[in-house]
User: Which sequence fits this backbone?
């Protein structure tokens, strides 16, 4: 395995915290940044936390 790797890097990997993608939580209205635990499903993350997710599902 030599040469350049075509492997896709995880979103936010190797970037500065300020350069990581952000989203706006619809429950608390606050922006939240990419987290390591979301690297696999950042596209589907809507809420900033489990707490907000529970409120979003049960208004
Ligand atoms: Zn929130």
Assistant:
């Amino acid at each position: 395995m030599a040469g350049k790797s075509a492997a896709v890097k995880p979103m936010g990997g190797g970037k500065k915290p300020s350069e990581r993608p952000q989203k706006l939580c619809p429950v608390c209205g606050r922006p939240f940044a990419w987290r390591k635990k979301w690297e696999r499903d950042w596209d589907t993350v809507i809420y900033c936390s489990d707490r907000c997710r529970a409120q979003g599902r049960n208004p």
User: Anything to note?
Assistant: The first helix runs from residue 50 to 57. The helical segments are 50-57.
